[in-house]
């Protein structure tokens, strides 16, 4: 399947909503947290595959603002899994030249998770391959509210004129300011919704939904999504004729 890829038309940035861990566990007669554990295996495989294909940015939705409302024991299990996964995977991230970054309201994470995360971000900051961005305690409405506060503050302090607020100013105040917008959004687990993920940044992303539960998601599923992406015509509001004549 890899041979079918057009390497001149790869999505530069892929965002994934990794959904279906709980249902995968249920289907296999296991506790929900075991679904999350298996999900961590998929993360490893997909990060490796994305790097090999030549994707530049991969943003993974690992924990949403709304996920704080899950039963405390599940939240605790997810926070513990974050620590063990980072500890286990950091050597491979180094080996594979992957740079880790994180977005979200990270202050809400337990101290140990925060420490582990910033240690790994620090250590991998020298890497130059795939940038892996974990969305943790993240939601788009949280992010847009925060950006709005910062922009209002700049206006109030006289650092920014009201008339100068435009799309670039908003984008510069988002947590994703240093990266291009995702070209492709993949959601596993069969739901057809965005769940408060990158609402601004996904404005022109191609959306791809698959029923495959995240713990079952493998390189071949990623390739299928990219191949589907490559069949689409991205028009950005223009006509098909315009787009073809620009090629
Ligand atoms: C996604 O899987 C992982 C997180 C949201 C942390 P879920 O835990 O939402 O799995 P389902 O949707 O219940 O199957
Ligand atoms: C979205 O999955 C969040 C993550 C994958 C981290 P959810 O399972 O929380 O989404 P909903 O509740 O089904 O919309
Ligand atoms: Mg879910």
Descriptive labels:
6 strands, globular, six-stranded parallel beta sheet, alpha/beta, 247 residues, binds magnesium ion, binds 3-methylbut-3-enyl trihydrogen diphosphate, 44% helix, 8 helices, Undecaprenyl pyrophosphate synthetase
How would you describe this structure to a colleague?
By secondary structure, the chain is an alpha/beta fold. The chain has one domain (11-139, 181-232): Undecaprenyl pyrophosphate synthetase. 44% of the residues lie in helices and 14% in strands. It has helices at residues 21-27, 32-53, 72-95, 111-124, 140-156, 167-172, 219-230, 240-246; strands at residues 13-17, 57-64, 99-103, 131-138, 184-187, 206-209. Strands 3-4-2-1-5-6 form a 6-stranded parallel beta sheet, sandwiched between helices. Helix 4 links the parallel strand 3 and strand 4 (131-138). Helix 1 (21-27) crosses helix 2 and helix 3 runs parallel beside helix 4 (111-124). The relative contact order is 0.19. The model has no long low-confidence stretch (mean pLDDT 98). One 3-methylbut-3-enyl trihydrogen diphosphate (IPE) binds at residues 18-23, 63, 67, 78, 189.
